[in-house]
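Changelog note: in this version the structure field was regenerated for every chain. One regenerated record is shown below for reference.
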Amino acid sequence: MKNNEQENLSSKAYAFIKAGIMNGTIPSGSVVSEIALAKEIGISRTPVREAIRQLSHEGILNQIPRFGTVVKEVNLRDIVEISELREALEPYAVAKCVENVTDIQLNLLAELCDEIAGFITKLEQMGQECLDEKDSKRFLAIDLGFHMIIINTAGNAKIRDILINARTMARLFIEMHDINVNKLKNTYTHHTAIYNAIKDRDADKARNAMLEHLRVSKQPALMQYHSYQILHGLNSKSANAGEYTLENVLSQCGLNELVNEPA
């Protein structure tokens, strides 16, 4: 019973930290304190430590010796790899979604598309270019929710977990104030195309619509990253891979102990 209770508390801490990253209250580069989090959540430090260990394993947090734990700062390579991962998995997921989707899920997808259209109308009527902070948070929730409905409906828990992790890392370089009319219109157009393909039960059309959406979305993300680098006076640096050996390859994959295994 105690083990189950400990796991539940660790899951609670894990969800709390991840939600903080997703909603922007725990920003990129910030220090994560076991003591402060345990007090804020109302639990002991042990489950918080377990949650931090798990998030570090997923690459969302970095545990730095003699300093502490910080939220990962996403670099250019991360953005490209996240984009490539989504392009590989989400078209497959939406094709599987076509096989499993229910009318209830279709209705919710349609409602989320309508909400984005509502934001566009609101900005045009008010003569504004960008969403305010409150509407930006709502838009990010809608965008994430649209994709998560599709991913959950695909019915593959492994793919779901990988993509949730990727979206959490992607959130680390999204700026709230950057959601303008053009972004809303592009998102609305692509989400509507994906929705229509799912509604028509056309897996190939849905797969192609999702791939097009992801590829079009990649370029603004790269431009936003470069703008952030310039604004903060930073330079992108590629890590030196060092000598290309079996040991190095396995170490990069977290499998360095296999080098010592007998053949």
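Spot check on this record: The chain has two domains: 2-71, 76-231. The domain at 2-71 is CATH 1.10.10.10 (Arc Repressor Mutant, subunit A).
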